[in-house]
């Protein structure tokens, strides 16, 4: 199956970004003990815009690595909306679920990076 140019371009940016963000969040998890609603709101705007851009230009639902790009876009859109409408909500607590989610996103980032740079 040939990967289209849009998937390669988005994956080559989104993959390394996911890896960098998730590793830095893992290392600096303690910074989330306090919640600053204006920063949470700003983060929500950025997540919403990035997620909307991804799903607007990449809505591929075929079972291949490119599906992870579409799913990441929808997760970013949903996370952005949550942060926009609920900026004072508590952040995730350190634990198995939060570290598991971070590990999953990092793994997706590694797969996207590898596939987009080797295809």
Short note summarizing the structure:
The chain has 119 residues and is an all-alpha fold. It has helices spanning 5-27, 37-57, 66-85, 96-118.
Structure in words:
By secondary structure, the chain is an all-alpha fold. It has four helices and no strands. Helix 1 runs antiparallel to helix 4 and helix 2 packs antiparallel against helix 3. The mean pLDDT is 90.
SSE string, helices as H and strands as E: HHHH
Which stretches are low in confidence, meaning pLDDT under 50 for 5 or more residues running?
Answer: none
Structural class: mainly alpha
Q: How many distinct beta strands?
A: 0
Number of domains: 1
Strand content: under 5%
Q: Major β-sheet, in short?
A: none
**Span between N and C termini?**
11 Å
Shape, per Cα inertia axes: globular
Fraction of helical residues: over 70%
Number of helices: 4
Radius of gyration: 15 Å
Give the rounded overall mean pLDDT. Answer: 90
């Amino acid at each position: 199956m040939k990967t289209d140019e849009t998937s390669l371009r988005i994956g080559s940016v989104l993959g390394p970004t996911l890896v960098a963000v998730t590793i830095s969040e893992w290392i600096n998890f303690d910074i989330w003990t306090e919640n600053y609603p204006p920063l949470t709101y700003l983060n929500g705007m950025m997540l919403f815009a990035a997620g909307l851009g991804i799903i607007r230009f990449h809505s591929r639902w075929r079972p291949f690595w490119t599906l992870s790009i579409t799913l990441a876009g929808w997760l970013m859109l949903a996370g952005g909306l949550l942060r926009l409408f609920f900026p004072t909500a508590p952040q995730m607590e350190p634990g198995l679920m939060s570290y598991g989610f971070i590990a999953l996103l990092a793994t997706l980032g590694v797969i996207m990076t590898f596939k987009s740079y080797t295809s």
